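Please complete every field before forwarding. Incomplete forms are returned to the sender.

SECTION A: IDENTIFIERS
Entry label: holo-124
Bound molecule: copper (II) ion
Molecule representation: SMILES string

SECTION B: INPUTS
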Amino acid sequence: MRSLAIALSAFMLLGGPSAFAAEQKADAVAELVIKQRGLAGKNTFRVTEGQIVELRWSTDETVELHLHGYDVLAKAKPGAPAVMRFKAHATGRYPVTVHGFGNKHSHGGGHSEKTMLYLEVYPK
Ligand SMILES: [Cu+2]
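SECTION C: PREDICTED COMPLEX
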């Protein structure tokens, strides 16, 4: 028992307050699956202002994702899902686009930016 207590306090010291904050549970979680360059399932995710939101992206191809408005970028690979975690501080409708499939990278180029999801943030 005593060694467990020591191990736990060492863990807390190493983790620090920021690691603890990262463990805070999200209020709204979406499990999103990209298959054959499209989103499987619904393409709208509704949350409420002030919530901690987590968008978890699984993919069958390497993609760079961009949540516009909030300006969150994430890269997902097959077997290595990406997580976008943020507080929904602003209401509105925000698209998440793929900048490029595979190794292409095209922000501003336009030819392969594709909307995958709309995040809708409703007022409290
Ligand atoms: Cu973009």
